[in-house]
Amino acid sequence: MPAAIAALDVRSASRLFKALGDETRLRIVALLSHGELCVCHFESALGLTQSNTSRQLAVLKNAGIVEARREGSWVYYQLAPQLDEVCRAQLKALVAAFSRRDVLREDVKRLLESRGPNACK
Question: Taking the model in full, what pTM does it have?
């Protein structure tokens, strides 16, 4: 195997694409491009159960796409900084393309309707 091929590390990009290979996870990433959100926001915006939402977020977290912080009994998620340049560029391109999709615009509309003061309390 040539040295250039051996030096090419595509594991980060592979992990990113595997995690994004699901419509629900893509929709979650699109919503997170608008800022930090609680699990209840995804439930409202996407019509998901709490368990399905948590399962999808766990996949994204394990892939390094999202990060979480706990505040009391609530867990808030945001897009994680991408250290890999290729992953950062791909995620940025996906988020830019999301704004042109009707289904994702509807998700954002439902998110904004459900995201009032104390929405998670």
Answer: 0.82
